[in-house]
Design brief:
The complex is a heterodimer of chains A (511) and B (99). Helix content of chain A is 41%, strand content 12%. Chain A is α/β, with parallel strands linked by helices. Chain A is globular and about 65 Å long. In chain B, helix 1 (6-15) crosses helix 2. The chains are: A alpha/beta (511), B mainly alpha (99).
């Protein structure tokens, strides 16, 4: 029974909750049991709500019984990336400097999921302050990919993606600054969406790079992502970059999905030898499938995309070095006083030395350098010009096509530790995802199959013009439907049975 | 331009208020040199005729009426602080002895 509950999609679970066939307490307990069984191996969670989640679920059950009407995800459990502040739940952003900090307020997307009657299960692991592509930069140890526990789950939101892929949660919240929702989706066989910049409030999201960050859904199906997108999107006066106009229903876009006549542009610069053979193979098979079902595939050129990573690694550190100045040992988090005491500046220096990990220090120093007098125009200024050029590439492409398609990332999940000592190699993971953040346009990664050479998941990314998020749900849902018909079962049904790891661990413990 | 010295990294660390160890400074000096070399690629296309973009979606300033909204209580505000006196944040000495 409980194994059955955790395998339902969020939409299916929501329907059964609404029909009274299952209670939210039962659904929440099933997921907490699953976390207890497999999270020792996966390590997707930094904090699990436990009894408090059951109390929240009981409250929703009571209110529903009393006749209160709810949206489609009421009573459904959800995992929350630790970058979002949560009232009453520890929020660390994967950093030692915030260890044990319990915020006094909720981030707006968290408030919205609570108001929708969803049940927060806990907080998911991530690279420290979302700086990374593997969760190996978490101060609390890496998350493991449910498809192969020795491999990375992607990052920075590897915890959210792994929680969903290992059936610990039906869906999760993530954040995407250069691919932190989409790349983990790619390597875990799940769905991830970065909405248009400004579609979802950033209020209460611990900022990495304010002009790039966006909160979005992490799920197993496109419909679940759309339902969650509909819950969290919308104007928020507490975020000055929040888009004031109302949004159409993404769930409706999924239900009406049809690619007849849809013009899909393939970015030729991101369809190259630099991508793993199996990643390209599944990408092209997915495009052919869409073409057979009425879509038109055309090649487009985006000549400035190749400058995206360079621009990103100037803009991001510059903004991050400024945003992370708030961790000053005064208002929240860690305080380390040097031996024999010191001035407030020496205390700050000692606190930040002890509280930040190597990647965070690297990027703060890099950002401080890029913004320093004499270098500002050459570095930060030039990066902002590249941003204009990338936007122009998108504008030119979208004049001729409805959506763009690329492989989501160059390779399948690599081994933990493989790229940890080579920052530049790690940065290349985001080559296909970063352009969307620079231009503010929305993107989705949808499972496209397993790479034949290693049997690991591969995603396909679609990108749409700003404010046209519904197009992503249309094409994503259409492809998901066609692939499901070919496969006969969801891709995640082919993932290894994690409960065997649990048994092994128990047996080892007994010996 | 990508030549970065250990002295520069130490200066940047001081500006960023991170008391890096000598070993970290040495390591970062080598890494930053490599990273800067890679990111300098932006100068190939960032010509004077291209306007910079600071923000992906064009925006206007956002105003609201000047009325008191919901705010955190003093107790909530201080709840996560390393040291308080019950109504204020407590910090270490601002000035050193020599100042």
């Amino acid at each position: 029974m409980s194994d059955h509950l955790i395998r339902l999609t969020a939409a299916e679970l929501g329907e059964r909750l609404a029909a009274g066939e299952v209670s939210s307490v039962e659904a929440t307990r099933a997921h907490l049991d699953r976390i207890a069984a497999v999270d020792g191996a996966v390590h997707a969670f930094l904090h699990v709500e436990g009894e408090r989640a059951l109390e929240t679920a009981a409250d929703i059950d009571r209110r529903r019984a009393a006749g209160e009407s709810f949206g489609p995800l009421a009573g459904v459990p959800i995992a929350i990336k630790d970058v979002l502040v949560t009232e009453g739940m520890p929020s660390t952003a994967g950093s030692r400097i915030l260890e044990g900090w319990v915020p006094p307020y909720d981030a707006t997307p968290v408030r919205k999921v609570r108001e929708a009657g969803m049940i927060p299960l806990g907080k998911t692991n991530m690279d420290e302050f979302a700086m990374g592509s593997s969760t190996e930069h978490s101060a609390y140890g890496p998350t493991h990919n449910p498809w192969d526990l020795e491999r990375i789950p992607g990052g920075s939101g590897g915890g959210s993606a792994a929680s969903v892929a290992s059936f610990e949660a039906p869906l999760a919240l993530g954040s995407d600054t250069g691919g932190s929702i989409r790349q983990p989706a790619h390597v875990t066989g799940t769905v991830g969406v970065k909405p248009t910049y400004g579609a979802v409030s950033r209020y209460g999201s611990i900022a990495l790079a304010s002009s790039l960050d966006q909160i979005g859904p992490v799920t197993r199906t496109v419909l679940d992502a759309a339902l969650l997108h509909d819950v969290i999107a919308g104007h928020d006066p507490l975020d000055s970059t929040s888009i004031p106009e109302p949004w159409p229903s993404m769930a409706d876009a999924v239900r009406r999905a049809d690619v007849t006549g849809l013009r899909i542009g393939v970015v030729k610069q991101l369809d190259s030898d630099g991508f793993q053979a199996g990643v390209r193979q599944r990408f092209h098979e997915a495009l052919e499938l869409l073409e057979r079902n009425g879509a038109e595939i055309v090649e487009v050129s985006a000549p400035h995309f190749e400058y995206s990573i360079a621009a990103y690694y100037l803009i991001l550190p510059a903004e991050a070095s400024s945003n992370l100045a708030k961790f000053d040992s005064v208002r929240f988090g860690l305080r380390v006083t040097p031996d024999g005491g010191g001035t407030v500046e020496q205390v700050m220096g000692a606190t930040r030395e002890a509280g930040f990990g190597p990647e965070v220090k690297r990027r703060i120093i890099l950002g401080t350098y890029a913004l320093s007098a004499g270098y500002y125009d050459a570095y930060y200024g030039s990066a902002q010009k590249v941003r204009t050029l990338v936007q122009r590439d998108f504008d030119a492409a979208f004049a001729n096509v409805d959506v763009l398609a690329t492989p989501t990332a160059p390779t399948t999940a690599f081994k933990l530790g493989e790229k940890l000592d080579d920052p530049l190699a790690m940065y290349l993971n985001d080559v296909a995802t970063i352009p969307a953040n620079l231009a503010g346009v929305p993107g989705i990664s949808v499972p496209a199959g397993l790479a034949p050479e290693d049997g690991l998941p591969v995603g396909i990314q679609f990108l749409a013009p700003a404010r046209e998020d519904a197009r992503l749900y249309n094409v994503g849902a259409a492809l998901e439907h066609l692939l499901l018909a070919e496969w006969g079962a969801p891709l995640l049904d082919r993932a290894p049975d994690l409960s065997r790891h649990e048994l092994t661990a128990t047996e080892e413990g007994a010996l | 331009m990508s030549e970065i010295s250990a002295e520069q990294v130490a200066h940047l660390a001081n500006l960023a208020r991170i008391a890096l160890t000598e070993e970290e400074i040495e390591h970062l000096t080598a890494e930053l040199g490599q990273i800067m070399q890679a990111v300098e690629k932006v100068s190939e296309v960032a010509t004077p005729d291209v306007p910079p973009t600071s923000h992906p979606i064009p925006m206007q300033n956002v105003f609201r009426d000047d009325v008191v909204g919901e705010t955190l209580t003093v107790e909530q505000t201080l709840s996560g602080a390393p040291e308080t006196d019950g109504s204020r944040f407590v910090v270490s000495a601002i000035l050193g002895e020599e100042q």
